Amino acid sequence: MPPLNLVEYERLAEAALDPQTFGYFAGGAGDEQTLADNIAAFGRWVLRPRMLVDVGAASPASTLLGGPISMPVLVAPTAFLRLAHPDGEGGVARAAAAAGTIYCLSTLATTTPADLARASPGGRRWFQLYCYRDRGITRSLVQQARETGFEAILLTVDMPFSGRRERDLRSGFVIPGEVEVPSFTSASSGRGSATLAEMVALLDPTLTWRDLEDLVAEAGLPVVVKGILGAEDARLAVASGAEAVAVSNHGGRQLDGVLASLDALPEVVEAVCGAVPVILDGGVRRGTDVVKALALGAQAVMVGRPIVWGLAAQGEPGVAYVLALLHEEVRLALALLGCVAPAQVSRRHVVRRADD
Amino acid sequence: MPPLNLVEYERLAEAALDPQTFGYFAGGAGDEQTLADNIAAFGRWVLRPRMLVDVGAASPASTLLGGPISMPVLVAPTAFLRLAHPDGEGGVARAAAAAGTIYCLSTLATTTPADLARASPGGRRWFQLYCYRDRGITRSLVQQARETGFEAILLTVDMPFSGRRERDLRSGFVIPGEVEVPSFTSASSGRGSATLAEMVALLDPTLTWRDLEDLVAEAGLPVVVKGILGAEDARLAVASGAEAVAVSNHGGRQLDGVLASLDALPEVVEAVCGAVPVILDGGVRRGTDVVKALALGAQAVMVGRPIVWGLAAQGEPGVAYVLALLHEEVRLALALLGCVAPAQVSRRHVVRRADD
Amino acid sequence: MPPLNLVEYERLAEAALDPQTFGYFAGGAGDEQTLADNIAAFGRWVLRPRMLVDVGAASPASTLLGGPISMPVLVAPTAFLRLAHPDGEGGVARAAAAAGTIYCLSTLATTTPADLARASPGGRRWFQLYCYRDRGITRSLVQQARETGFEAILLTVDMPFSGRRERDLRSGFVIPGEVEVPSFTSASSGRGSATLAEMVALLDPTLTWRDLEDLVAEAGLPVVVKGILGAEDARLAVASGAEAVAVSNHGGRQLDGVLASLDALPEVVEAVCGAVPVILDGGVRRGTDVVKALALGAQAVMVGRPIVWGLAAQGEPGVAYVLALLHEEVRLALALLGCVAPAQVSRRHVVRRADD
Amino acid sequence: MPPLNLVEYERLAEAALDPQTFGYFAGGAGDEQTLADNIAAFGRWVLRPRMLVDVGAASPASTLLGGPISMPVLVAPTAFLRLAHPDGEGGVARAAAAAGTIYCLSTLATTTPADLARASPGGRRWFQLYCYRDRGITRSLVQQARETGFEAILLTVDMPFSGRRERDLRSGFVIPGEVEVPSFTSASSGRGSATLAEMVALLDPTLTWRDLEDLVAEAGLPVVVKGILGAEDARLAVASGAEAVAVSNHGGRQLDGVLASLDALPEVVEAVCGAVPVILDGGVRRGTDVVKALALGAQAVMVGRPIVWGLAAQGEPGVAYVLALLHEEVRLALALLGCVAPAQVSRRHVVRRADD
Lengths: 356, 356, 356, 356
Prior knowledge:
4 copies of one chain form a homotetramer. Chain A is of the alpha/beta class. Helices cover 43% and strands 13% of the residues of chain A. The first copy, chain A, has an 8-stranded parallel β-sheet with strand order 4-11-10-9-8-7-6-5. Chain A has a two-stranded antiparallel sheet with strand order 1-12. A two-stranded antiparallel sheet of chain A has the order 2-3. In chain A, strand 10 (278-281), helix 13 (287-295) and strand 11 (300-303) form a beta-alpha-beta unit. The two termini of chain A are 36 Å apart. The interface between A and D is large, with 44 and 30 residues.
């Protein structure tokens, strides 16, 4: 029987991967409180559906940054996908394209932007950017992305240093030397195996909003800022030229104990005040999670780990199935909420859960 | 020893039924959060009793839609009761009649309204209505109910599509072809086994409040609207001619993550403002649950699964015993609350539970 | 090693008693939510101690109804103590007298007030009253108590009917015919074994505040009203002549789902407004529980089950030890709170616990 | 593999110590609610990081009472360290000195201030003071501390009597006669083994704020008051001449059920109003705990048990490793919070956790 939901895919992936690799993708920083809280946060809101709306034609189709998406769900950037399955980034990108949504390629992908574009020429693609201390590499990555059809630069701002991921320290997880990570290879001189922290050490921890302004000026593509958890930074991102912001705590993998993504969403939405779309990243596992995020003001959400679980379990077809499950869950949630389209979901459709 | 309470009946039913069928009746949608929350919601309120009231003659007898009921507890509509026990809908209806309360027959019953009326001629009966895409079937069902002594039409408005019930998907639950579901047989052409989703696909997902107005105009019976979870819809129901509204989330079987029924009750009561009675459906397992709902403004409650458990465990006598247990629990709760009758229970008799 | 605290005594008692009898004393009504909540309520408050107060001579000695008590802890009335241990009511009364506090004899004791007075002539004693339908018995009990040195009548007002105690129904618990319950014997004609519900059926469920006024007028002793859970009833008790009120839900044995005693205390204290002392009954297991109740406005607390556990485990010496443990715990709690005496404990010494 | 965090050190220590000794260091008073709540309190706040701050040079270095500390983490005073490991107080003091932070020597140490100064001549040291009934001993201890390079007197004010530590009563824990506790030996006449309560009985339970004033006048060193849990006492401490206050409930070892240290911090910070630094003691296990305390107004925190676990597991090197782990965790937490130094952490960096 095919998996019934995204959580079942996590179990399949755990069975398919070696424990080190599963731990790398599944784990978070420190005590993994934020990792758990990202998911728990959705349980703190309940839906408030409307009845007797004609929902025969309800559809999750939406738009983002001027283009269509089949549902308000993007594929989050994730590093090292070839560790999960040989289909790697290309397989995920093709599944996302086939599903009609946006794929985000990580700077720490096991492929270059150009190769990914060749592997998955169709579909909408964004390029996730980490800034190396060596700015030449960064400039080259942006240029390559722009020239091979990526539609936006997704700048991740929450990793000046790597979070302390104790699962990886405990398991001795390293990215094996035989798994190519092109941007890292460019930044280091001749590499073997490396830990994530060793890779992150090549990134620039001195970035400021000024650097964002420069990127906006030079990228030639819209810039989306990922990793915002508060109103001040949301306003700074907009003022610096970001065309969208993604509320995110890096899946609980950077600073343990920060706000759950969903808990940070309302203040960011209020601060941004409609100037740019807000994307929610972190903890989405159900179609009802998606509509809760919409009700709290998100234009769309990103899913990360569930995509990895689909890839690990069944390669590209697993990713396709995960996206199909989500599409159907979002469609049904919209219809049962009394909404024909994502744009109809409003703050009135959700209420704070009564405390136990 | 006979069961001491309704929860013990659930255990008996689980032993009596095959796992698929038990899962069908017991389960909810998605992660079953709403299923659990319907029950947990009662724990979020505590009773505030009054002392030294003469309660020697305390009684749960009440009235609803102009007629008497022995207690403010109705038998909720439930589909496919013959799957639980050969006594089926007729057995439940007779037990309800004998107990002095109202029985609600489901559109998806394993009997027709006319046959049910023959099987249980006495007692008060309501007919629960789903609207098929083929409106002729719907009109015929309403006419049959009206002509065979049903006192009201209970229109369920929360099922434009079937909720995603993963227990059933996992177990492969189908309604066997040999179990007759007359309304479905009329709506489909020659059937074998069918899933609930296949049955629901014949229902009309495009209904609007205008259709309710039409039903009110044409039914020739009072119309009660079941499935309301918010103030706006409660007001629309009253404005459209409903003579009562039932706060319900379909037992947690439609959209997982919505408000617990009891949590939605206060805003519906406030919105309706006394214009029509409000009925609470979902999570009632104890006499104290009943008086909590009364205190929050309900005129009566519905019980669904506990009736199924009584039926599954012991047939019609089991249902009678469940209703007798509830009657005694409600009587005792009223008396210990310092109330002689349901109408004396007021908002002052309940307070929000102090948080842990 | 002697037990270190009252909870350890419960384990000893469970080992010493047959399961039916232990279940009778330990159990509550319905789902036993109130039974548990009485204890949990203390955890919802935390203490706010003061430092550098000279507490070298801190002492729990206090007063109540014009007389001294060695600590603000009374022995609650409990029925059928001879079921717990042959030392019975007399043993408990002697231990309470030796400890310097008040013993409350139950109407459903296994001894008469006169015999108890002979068994424990010293110490302060109150007589707990249930009103039988046969008012002659009630009058006779009050007269007997008055004439044998009881200082007050403690009228329990929360038992017009017996709560539904499912542990007893499950275990088939009855009070054996050979255990004499003198008041019940007077009220019934020739008895054998009887359930508690059968005994309670002889009590008068039609009592009103008018009957309290009559009792106050006729008793010739101060009347304390036990079983108050709200402001209205507290005011009525004072207006009817009660000289103290005891906030109580009958140890969670009557209506399950009511307010925890401690949660009801603040509103009763506010309503009574200093006119009479307020006693807290329910859930006290620690010296810190006692000072929390004092901080919320109680003049004293009652302990019931812990006394039974001491009695069951070790007879009269066990009760003495339980009271000694509590005395030392209260003394230490006062001292570490920066208070020299119970009267120094104020509302500033306690705060609502921060939510998890 | 070396331990990854402080909690892992607790497991190592449990394996290294006999159960009585581990229980002594690990345990708290009564039901150990405060012991647990000290840790849980940190989970009730979440961090609110800022992005795109140049944190390349983020460092936890700070100052306290006019001198530098390598991080805002002090080593709390702990009694009887030689019970944990032969390296004892000297080993801990040397590790603290090497790590660049302050070591607090307990009055109930297994060494004298003078001997400790010889064992660890470098580094900053404070002397924790209990006042014996025999004030001569107290005066002598203060003089010795002053003359051997201790920089401050840390007066503990929350132990007029010993808390009721049931783990020790259960295990029969005593401080063996062969373990020298010099101050106790001075205060008693010829000792063998002794319980903590026997030792505490020699302390003076009649101390008042007047005694603090006298100490401030006579000590010749700054006086820090440890054991404050409320605004009134914080103001009194400042008014009496304290140069810093430490919010503490003695690690949950004195009065069980009091405020968690972190929960008391905000009111103390507000009351002190910047007049003196506030130190937070209790429950710190993570670098993120440290920054949460800073955000709520603490200038620094103390860690107690984790130091004991490091000592018990590996002697002085274990303490060094615990301090190194904390230093790195604080550095990383600061950087990921967008702060370059402890002084940049503000109330805006933390929010109350959304309730579940």
